Description:
By secondary structure, the chain is mainly alpha-helical. It is 55% helix and 0% strand.
Amino acid sequence: MAQLNHDTLRETVIDAILAVAPEADVDALPADRPWREALEIDSFDFLNILVDLEKRLGVSVPESDYHELATLDGLIGYLEKRLAA
């Protein structure tokens, strides 16, 4: 897959979140704070978001890396690294 720029990747992540949690107020989401807590995303929805991102981007996230996805910035940074590899 072609490498996406940061803004496009952020939009893709937001779209994946909204596909699972359409009521989520992503505009008020601080990029450096835990996004699952802020949006009240439970573990099932979190996994659905990761599945959606895998379909969109072709990047699977092993459970051992979930800690790197705590913030929106962390999630985007993680995906950037994986897409660049």
